Amino acid sequence: MTDTAKPTLAKRTYIVIFGADTPAGKAFDIALLIAILASVGVVMLQTVEPVASTHGEALQAAEWVFTGLFTAEYIVRIWCVERKRQYLTSFFGTVDLLSVLPSYIGLIVPHARLMLVLRSIRLIRVFQVFQLTPALKEAAVLKGALKSSGARITVFLSAVLILAVLMGSLMYIVEGPENGFTSIPISMYWAVVTMTTVGFGDLVPHTPWGQTIASVLMILGYSLIVVPTGLVSAELVKADSGNGTQASDLIGLKVCRDCGSSASRAGALYCDECGVVL
Predict the structure, then answer these.
(1) For the chain (length 278 residues), average pLDDT per consecutive 10?
(2) Domain residue spans in the chain?
(3) Cα-Cα-Cα-Cα dihedral of 100, 103, 104, 108, to 10°?
(4) pLDDT tens for each residue of 49-63
């Protein structure tokens, strides 16, 4: 006998809130994205003094309206999802929680409310709404490349730190406090700024030897910049050629409605992370 039982209210709500493959689900997600953008805009406007002094009360009221909506949405998500613990500990579940907590913490610590800009992270859902999940797969490839080259990047950063200590100490000896190099940590700050070619100009050498050292460090800085880029690029090429992450694998990817992770291959039936049916 065919099961003709209608889906429960929780199941229907789940399909709308966690799914983007139905008209109602897509409309909900688009409305959610608009609300997120508006709420982040309200938080930003509260830091603009002319606007805050004129419309401060209205902005604060709007902030609490958005907080109430997102709190209700978070509660409904917990109610309708079957694997509640999986959702609560997932990336999207954590972000959903962080999008409402600052308002309530702000009742005790006023400046904590500014952390409501964390809501902007929820805009990642735009990939699911507009079927951009191949971009999520590419992000996973980039994450893997960074992880694979992590040890070599750590060695590189250690070498840069040692160089900053040596050059900072040398500049402290050469220039001295009378030229602004009042301590080795301050001189190390100058070395890092110089190596990264930022050049704030708040601390500059005045002696010929100091200017010579600065010139060498600037040239060395240009050569150092390309090292981490080359390491990550090599891992990206290796991942693209050796792990089967071809363009054809990126077609038809799905996003798990429970934990938000993307499937590893097109046509996958279960989520790699939590095992839920996609």
Answers:
(1) 65 84 84 91 90 91 93 94 88 87 85 78 70 60 75 84 93 93 94 88 92 92 79 72 48 53 55 65
(2) 9-131, 146-245
(3) 150
(4) 999 899 989 999 999
Q: How many residues does the chain have?
A: 278
Q: Where does residue 15 rank: exposed (0-12), middle (13-18), buried (19+ CB within 10 A)?
A: middle
Report yes or no: 14 and 81 within 8 Å, Cβ to Cβ: yes
Q: Is 270 helix (H, G, I), strand (E, B) or coil?
A: strand
The rounded distance, in Å, linking the Cα atoms of 46 and 64 is 13
CA–CA gap between residue 129 and residue 144 (Å, rounded): 25
List of residues 6+ apart from 99 with CB closer than 8 A:
36, 70, 74, 116, 118, 119, 121, 122
Return the CATH class of domain 146-245: mainly alpha
Q: How far apart are CA 224 and CA 4, in angstroms?
A: 66
With 0.85 as the threshold, say if the pTM is over it.
Answer: no
Would the CATH topology of 9-131 be identical to that of 146-245?
no
Q: What is the CATH number of domain 9-131?
A: 1.20.120.350
Cα–Cα distance for residue pair 272/278, rounded to 1 Å: 10
97: helix, strand or coil: helix
- CA 147 to chain CA centroid, nearest Å: 16
Instruction: Report d(CA 205, CA 154) in Å as an integer.
Output: 30
Please state, in angstroms and as integers, the Cα–Cα distance from residue 187 to each residue in 168, 176, 214, following that order: 4, 9, 11
Q: Which residue is it, tokens 């050469």?
A: 174
Beta bridge mates, 262: 255
List the one residue out of 107, 35, 132, 41 whose CA is nearest residue 74. 35
